[in-house]
């Protein structure tokens, strides 16, 4: 993920279990559910209902802790099972690459290599099982923005390095901004190259050309991952996205700020009569 702009944190994020389940069941393109703000003590205790003005939809929409579904369960489980294997592969691969300077005993290096190969099998199998046993349609729908590029995406990429200049406004981003699209495509390409060169290395240990490709892709992935991690865990304005990948939901206001075109589309669908 990459930042769309430099603004303060969004409002509180509230996960709602039933809405989450409903959201995950929803097929691709279906409207996202909205978690209503929590009932106040008066309502919860069964006393007089809130006045209509307070309970009205626009008021609820403006509520600071209203959330929208960002990622369904299939996407989230795919992301985390994939990330777990990938990070483990990078850690064990890094140890293998540094085995001589680290003075690793050959027996230990062999064990690390076995763990590396086992993680490669996990990477190839587990995320695929997650997708096939989950909401496959929704999953592929989530991937579709990666191949759909608009002029605004190109403008976003061109202007992003100058986003710190106050007079420059970035074009509104969709569900993924152009930086996230580039990141996702780059990580996918590197994964294919790592898997292919790794498979050749498994069959022909020590072969020079695939080893060079393998190590080059590993080194290219490191800064991408450092940026991804920094945005997910450190940068205050993008950190709320982590809740989206953990619980599935993010604050509507945060999303409106960082992904305005996505929220516009979502609200247009929310306002439209249910599709048959
Ligand atoms: C282990 C630490 C990781 C954390 C904390 C993390 C966190 C996140 C978060 C919060 C998002 C959602 C961004 C948004 O809603 O805008 C995301 C998306 C994504 N993650 Fe990760 N991730 C991790 C590892 C990885 C790894 C290892 C890969 C691939 C090798 C990866 C690939 C992606 C991709 C392609 C996306 C969608 C595009 C994007 O937002 O850049 N992630 N990640
Ligand atoms: C996805 C399937 C993968 C397979 C089948 C695979 C397989 C292998 C094999 C067989 C080796 C030993 C090479 C040799 O010494 O002859 C190796 C080494 C290595 N792998 Fe992978 N790997 C995979 C993914 C990855 C990933 C995702 C990363 C990092 C992001 C990675 C990083 C490394 C590194 C740094 C080395 C050490 C290279 C060296 O000896 O200098 N591998 N891999």
Structure overview:
The protein is 63% helix and 3% strand. Helix 5 packs antiparallel against helix 7. The radius of gyration is 22 Å and the shape is elongated. Strands 1-2-3 form a 3-stranded antiparallel sheet. It has 276 residues and is mainly alpha-helical. It has one domain: Transmembrane di-heme cytochromes, Chain C (Fumarate Reductase Cytochrome B subunit). The structure holds protoporphyrin IX containing FE (HEM) (2 copies). The site of one protoporphyrin IX containing FE has 25 residues, from helix 5, helix 7, helix 10 and helix 11.
Index terms:
mainly alpha; 276 residues; 63% helix; disordered N terminus; 14 helices; 3-stranded antiparallel β-sheet; Fumarate Reductase Cytochrome B subunit
Oligomer: single chain
The CATH topology is given as Fumarate Reductase Cytochrome B subunit
The end-to-end distance, rounded to whole angstroms, is 34 Å
Number of domains: 1
N-to-C order of helices and strands: HEHHHEHHHHHHHHEHH
């Amino acid at each position: 993920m990459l930042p769309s702009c430099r603004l303060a944190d969004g409002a509180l994020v509230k996960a709602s279990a039933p809405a989450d389940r409903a959201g995950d069941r929803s097929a691709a393109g279906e409207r996202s559910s909205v978690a209503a703000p929590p009932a106040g003590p008066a309502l919860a205790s069964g006393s007089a209902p809130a006045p209509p003005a307070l309970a009205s939809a626009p008021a609820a929409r403006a509520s600071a802790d209203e959330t929208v579904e960002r990622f369904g369960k299939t996407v989230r489980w795919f992301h985390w099972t994939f990330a777990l294997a990938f990070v483990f592969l990078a850690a064990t691969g890094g140890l293998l690459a540094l085995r001589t300077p680290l003075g690793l005993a050959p027996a230990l290096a062999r064990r690390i290599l076995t763990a590396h190969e086992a993680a490669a099998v996990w990477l190839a199998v587990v995320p695929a099982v997650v997708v096939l046993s989950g909401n496959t349609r929704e999953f592929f729908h989530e991937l579709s923005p990666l191949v759909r590029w608009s002029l605004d995406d190109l403008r976003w990429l061109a202007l992003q390095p100058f986003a710190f200049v106050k007079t420059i406004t970035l074009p509104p981003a969709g569900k993924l901004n152009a930086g996230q699209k580039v990141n996702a495509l780059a990580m996918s390409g590197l994964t294919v190259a790592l898997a292919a060169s790794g498979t050749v290395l498994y069959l022909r240990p020590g072969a020079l050309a695939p080893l060079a490709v393998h190590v080059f892709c590993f080194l290219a992935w490191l800064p991408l991952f450092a940026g991804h991690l920094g945005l997910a865990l450190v940068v205050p304005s993008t950190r709320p996205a982590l809740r989206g990948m953990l619980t599935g939901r993010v604050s509507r206001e945060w999303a409106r700020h960082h992904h305005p075109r996505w929220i516009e589309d979502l609200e247009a669908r929310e306002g439209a009569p249910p599709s048959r």
